[in-house]
Amino acid sequence: MGKGVFITFEGIDGVGKTTQLNILCKQLQKLGYTVVKTREPGGTWLGRQIRQILLAPTDQAISQQAEILLYAADRAQHVQEIVKPALAAGKIVVCDRYVDSSIAYQGYGLGWDVEAIVQINQKAIDGLMPHLTLCLDNEPELTLTRTKGDRIEQRDIAYYQRVRQGYQEIAQQYSERFKIISAQGSIEEVSQRVWKIIQERGLV
Ligand SMILES: Nc1ncnc2c1ncn2[C@@H]1O[C@H](COP(=O)(O)OP(=O)(O)OP(=O)(O)O)[C@@H](O)[C@H]1O
Ligand SMILES: [Mg+2]
């Protein structure tokens, strides 16, 4: 790994990842750091093609293995093309979602084999894990009203509860790297919690 710092954001839909990532990047830039802000899926040209395949409405089935591999292919390209070169150049890379999203969404959310997802992703990440993962946590009942509007179905809530629980499991397993942050309260309050952890970790 290079001399840079790799930080990822995680959490369920609408919890405030992109909002907090933007604030953090601005704070770091103000302090003079060179920051690369990126995201998965879709951080590269190949990734954007893959994202379109995954999100296109179709009645054609995509198998579990194929879906896991498509996300992993996006990740592999992103790691090689964007993340690793930036870290080698000493930059701070802040990424919206990474391998934990595959584990939480496909593994815990959809009930697919977590071990298989981890295995497939080993090749994609090529040994690169974040120095710190900031996982924002809040009630799906609240966060989904931000992304899906008022009509949220019970099965959506149940699915996101499982994803949220998945993140809790990941936090127990990787307590050093993976930090859960309450996303309750104002954007300002949450950003202060994020900044406190960045400072505590001595990352800046
Ligand atoms: N603490 C907060 N209080 C109230 N509103 C918030 C808070 N944080 C974010 N929001 C608002 O909620 C919406 C979703 O936030 P954001 O896009 O950052 O979430 P996200 O986790 O990136 O969502 P997605 O998973 O869909 O990418 C935005 O309109 C944002 O302004
Ligand atoms: Mg977002």
Describe what this molecule looks like in 3D.
The longest helix is centred in the middle third of the chain and has 25 residues, at 64-88. The protein is α/β, with parallel strands linked by helices and 204 residues long. The protein is 57% helix and 13% strand. The chain has a 5-stranded parallel β-sheet with strand order 2-3-1-4-5, sandwiched between helices. The chain binds adenosine-5'-triphosphate and magnesium ion.
Structural descriptors:
204 residues, alpha/beta, Rossmann fold, 8 helices, 57% helix, binds adenosine-5'-triphosphate, binds magnesium ion
Unreliable stretches (pLDDT < 50, length at least 5) are none
CATH uppermost class: Alpha Beta
- Shape, per Cα inertia axes: globular
| Pattern of helices and strands | EHEHHEHHEHHEH
Q: Mean pLDDT, as a whole number?
A: 95
Radius of gyration: 17 Å
The proportion of residues forming helix, as a percent range, comes to: 55-70%
Strand order of the largest sheet: 2-3-1-4-5
The kinds of small molecule bound in this structure are: adenosine-5'-triphosphate, magnesium ion
